Amino acid sequence: MTETWLTKEFGLAFPIVGAPMGGRAGGVLTGEVSKAGGLGMLGAARYTTADWIAKEAAVARDIGGIFGIGLQTWSLDEDDALLEAALEAKPRVIALSFGDAAPYAERVHAAGIAVMSQINTVDDMRLAEQAGVDIIVAQGGEAGGHTGKVGTLPLLQEVLDSTELPVLAAGGIATGRGLAAVIAAGAQGALIGTALLASPETIGPEYARSRILAASSTDTVYTSVFDQARHQPWPTRWGGRAIANEFTARYHDAGVDEAELATAYDPANPELGVVYAGQAAGLVNSEHPAGEIVRRIAADADALLRRFAS
């Protein structure tokens, strides 16, 4: 596979990072991505506990050796216990995303850990630069889960033209074609999330895998109703991309209060619970182990890059 800054800096076989998906990327998935030659990342959501981080980090380390941890920076402002737990787990990288990394980046660096930040606009990127982050992730609106509104390719081009920091791409990348495209554009690698969601190593409700497999690229919706239903106080600028269901059909943009949403929400019911996924869901048509997916994406990207290089 083509070497990039990412592969050389972290000793990876492939320029692929497993997205830190809250509620889906636990220790097994994280470890298998790293074992396959990428860099797996644990997804620590606001409701995650310090004990969960410690336990899942140990699993990831046992399986894959190296790993990272992704945190929601806005939630650290009210309680930074998860950052302390992440530092104690000694990952290779901590992602401080969705908020200003400045109050926390120095503590991460002091522990000898690299700082990554997912950004959704060029202004976000400049804030991350000022905070001293090491790696920028240009996350486009095609991505699953919480994201911005600018598409991956426009955002990636803008960011690459605006920073000297190493840049990764995220959002809509689920095959070798997508990885080859962003590397050819100048990215040092890619985060993949939706491509892994049907893998048996994911955590979360069992129905989530079948929903991913059945979904097309037009079956997602960008919404905040699931945050409101679960009393998750995400800043209003970040919605979440999820697979559309009866809940979104009934409540997305309906203007009802949180109490009604919380009563209607049912995480055990696929039509009333949330499955966050990106527009790349249409490219996920069968269940495969995470390591197999990582190796296949890398091999297909390498074949395309070599073909065009020659």
TrEMBL record:
CDD domains associated with the record: NPD_like
GO terms, molecular function: nitronate monooxygenase activity
Signal sequence region: none
Keywords for this protein: Flavoprotein, FMN, Monooxygenase, Oxidoreductase
Keyword Membrane belongs to the record: no
InterPro entries linked: Aldolase_TIM, NMO
Keyword Transmembrane (UniProt): no
Protein name listed in UniProt: Nitronate monooxygenase
